[in-house]
Amino acid sequence: MSRATTGITAATALLVSLGCLTACRPDSPSASAPPSTSAAAPSSPAPASPTAEDSPAASAPPVQLPSRSAAPASGKPSSAGAGELPASVWMAADGIPMASLYHWGAPAAAAQAVHNPRFEFEQLCMSTRDPSNDLGDWKGPAAQAHLAGPAQNYADWQVQQTVVHFPGTSSTGAQLAAGLYQGLADELNACAQSVPGARVRVTANGGDGGNEHLAATVTVPESGGGSYTLHQYLSLTGRAVVELALWSDQPTHAWSAPSDAVVLGALEAPVCPALGDC
Question: Which residue of 15, 25, 143, 168 is 20 to 30 Å from 75, comparing CA positions?
Answer without folding.
Answer: 168
